[in-house]
Design a protein that fits this description.
Helix content: 40-55%
Strand order of the largest sheet: 1-2
Distance between the termini: 96 Å
Largest sheet: 2 strands, antiparallel
Strand content: under 5%
Radius of gyration: 30 Å
Number of domains: 3
CATH topology of the largest domain: Cytochrome Bc1 Complex, Chain D, domain 2
Bound molecules: heme C
CATH architecture of the largest domain: Orthogonal Bundle
Order of helices and strands: HHHHHHHEEHHHHHHHH
CATH class of the largest domain: Mainly Alpha
Length: about 350
C-alpha cells in the first residue's frame, strides 16, 4: 500500500513538474510573441533592447517608410468633363506633343525648334527624377537668381520656350500658354508648400574630383547614345515628318547655350536617371562618372547661341557650373564649364 502511495505521489510529482515545464515554455513563447508583435511597449516588461535592436525601433521604421514614398502623380483620367478639365487636358497634350502644335510646322503657331517639352520633362513632367513638375505648383512664384526677378509659372514656361526650345513663347494670355500653366499647376497640386518630395526634379549624383572629359564622353556617346540621337547629334525624324522620334542633342535644332541642360550638372543628372532610353532612377545604366563625361562631350558641341547678357544680374549668384564669366572667384570659364567643381563650390562657401 505504502509502495502504491509512493508510486502515486511520484507520478503526481512528474505530472506537476511537466505542468511547470509546459507553462514556463508557454510563458516564454507568449513573451516572445508579445515582443515581436509589440502588443505592449517592450520596455514595460523587458530590459532595454533598444541598443541591440536599434534598426527595428518602431518609430524609425514608420518614418523611413514615409520618406521613401515616391511622389504620386494625380490621375489624368480623374479630370472632370468641365472647361477646367479640358484646359488641363489640352495643356498635357501641348507638353507632350509640342512640335505638332507649336513647332516649325505646327498647327497653331510656328515658334519653336521641333522639340517637345516632354523630351526633357519625361512622361509630360511626371516621371520620378525625370525632370518633373512635382514642385512647381508649391514653389512658384519665386525669385530666381538667373533673372533676379520674381517669376511665376508663365515666365518659367516662357524661359524654356526661349532657351530649351530655342524659340519664342506664346503670349501669356493665349489659350496655349494658359493651358500649359494650368496643366503644370495641376501636376503638383498635392504637394504642400515647403514639402520635399522623393523623386522630384532631377536626381543628385556624386561630384567628380577631376574635370569631366569630352574625350571620354565621346566614346560613351558613340556606344550608348548615337544609335538614337545620331552621328551628328541631329536626332531622328521619319522622312517628311516634322516631328522627332529621337530629339537632337546638338546642332541648329537643339537647345541653345542659355538653356538649363547646357549646365553639365543638369545634363548629367538628367541622363543618369533617364538615358539611354529605358533607364530609371532605380535602374540607371550609366555610372555617375559616365554621366558627367557624356554631358561634357554633348555640351562641347556646337549649338544655337542665346544673348544672355541680362542673366545673373548679381554675378556672385552664378551656379558653380555656369560656363560664362565674369565671376566673383578666380576660376576660369573652362573650369566653370567642365570642373573640377569642388574647389569652386568650396570657395563659394556652399
Ligand atoms: C532641352 C530640354 C528641355 C526642354 C525641351 C524643356 N525644358 Fe523645361 N526645363 C529644363 C531643365 C533642365 C529645367 C531645370 C533647369 C534648372 O533648374 O536650371 C527646366 C525647368 C522647367 C520648369 C521649372 C521647374 C521647376 O521645378 O522649377 C518648368 C515649369 C519648365 N521647365 C517647363 C517647360 C515647358 C512647358 C517646356 C515646353 C514648352 C519645357 N520646359 C521644355 C529642360 C527643358
Ligand atoms: C533607344 C534610343 C535612345 C538612346 C540609346 C538614348 N536616348 Fe536620349 N532620348 C531618347 C528619346 C526617345 C528621348 C525623348 C524622350 C521623350 O520624349 O519621352 C531622349 C531624350 C534625351 C535628352 C533630352 C532631350 C534632348 O534632345 O536634349 C537628352 C539630353 C538625351 N536623350 C541624352 C542621351 C544620352 C547622353 C544618351 C546616351 C547615354 C542617350 N540619350 C541615349 C532616346 C534615346
Amino acid at each position: 500500500m505504502k509502495r502504491d502511495n509512493d508510486k502515486e505521489f511520484g507520478s503526481l510529482l512528474i505530472k506537476f513538474s511537466n505542468l511547470i515545464g509546459l507553462s514556463a515554455l508557454t510563458t516564454i513563447l507568449l513573451l516572445f510573441l508579445v515582443f515581436i508583435f509589440r502588443l505592449t511597449p517592450a520596455h514595460t516588461y523587458l530590459p532595454d533592447f533598444s541598443q541591440v535592436f536599434q534598426d527595428s525601433a518602431p518609430n524609425e521604421v514608420t518614418e523611413t517608410v514615409g520618406d521613401d514614398e515616391i511622389w504620386k502623380v494625380p490621375d489624368l483620367a480623374s479630370l472632370p468633363a468641365t472647361p477646367e478639365g479640358d484646359q488641363i487636358r489640352y495643356g498635357h497634350e501641348l507638353v507632350k506633343n509640342t512640335a505638332q502644335y507649336l513647332g516649325p510646322e505646327g498647327s497653331v503657331l510656328h515658334i519653336s525648334n521641333g522639340m517637345n517639352c516632354q523630351n526633357c520633362h519625361l512622361d509630360a513632367g511626371t516621371k520620378p527624377y525625370g525632370n518633373n513638375y512635382a514642385l512647381v505648383a508649391s514653389t512658384y512664384p519665386k525669385v530666381r537668381a538667373r533673372s533676379g526677378m520674381e517669376e511665376d509659372v508663365t515666365k518659367r514656361v516662357a524661359d524654356c520656350f526661349e532657351r530649351s526650345l530655342n524659340g519664342t513663347a506664346p503670349g501669356k494670355d493665349t489659350k496655349e500658354m494658359r493651358a500649359m500653366v494650368a496643366y503644370i499647376q495641376w501636376v503638383g497640386k498635392d504637394v504642400k508648400k515647403g514639402n520635399k518630395v522623393k523623386g522630384s526634379g532631377l536626381m543628385d549624383i556624386e561630384m567628380l574630383n577631376r574635370a569631366s572629359s569630352p574625350e571620354l564622353g565621346k566614346v560613351i556617346y558613340i556606344h550608348k547614345c548615337q544609335v538614337c540621337h545620331g552621328e551628328e547629334g541631329e536626332g531622328m525624324k521619319p522622312q517628311g515628318s516634322a516631328v522627332y522620334v529621337y530629339p537632337p542633342l546638338w546642332g541648329e535644332n537643339s537647345y541653345n547655350d542659355g538653356a538649363g541642360l547646357y549646365r553639365i550638372s543638369n545634363f548629367a543628372k538628367y541622363v543618369k536617371a533617364n538615358m539611354p532610353l529605358g533607364a530609371t532612377y532605380d535602374n540607371p545604366q550609366l555610372t555617375d562618372e559616365e554621366a558627367w563625361d557624356v554631358a561634357a562631350f554633348v555640351n562641347s558641341m556646337l549649338r544655337p547661341n542665346k544673348n544672355i547678357s541680362n542673366d545673373w544680374p548679381d554675378i556672385s549668384k552664378k551656379p558653380f557650373d555656369h560656363p560664362f564669366g565674369p565671376y566673383t572667384d578666380n576660376f576660369n570659364e573652362e573650369q566653370h564649364k567642365y570642373g573640377p567643381f569642388q574647389p569652386i563650390i568650396t570657395s563659394q562657401g556652399k
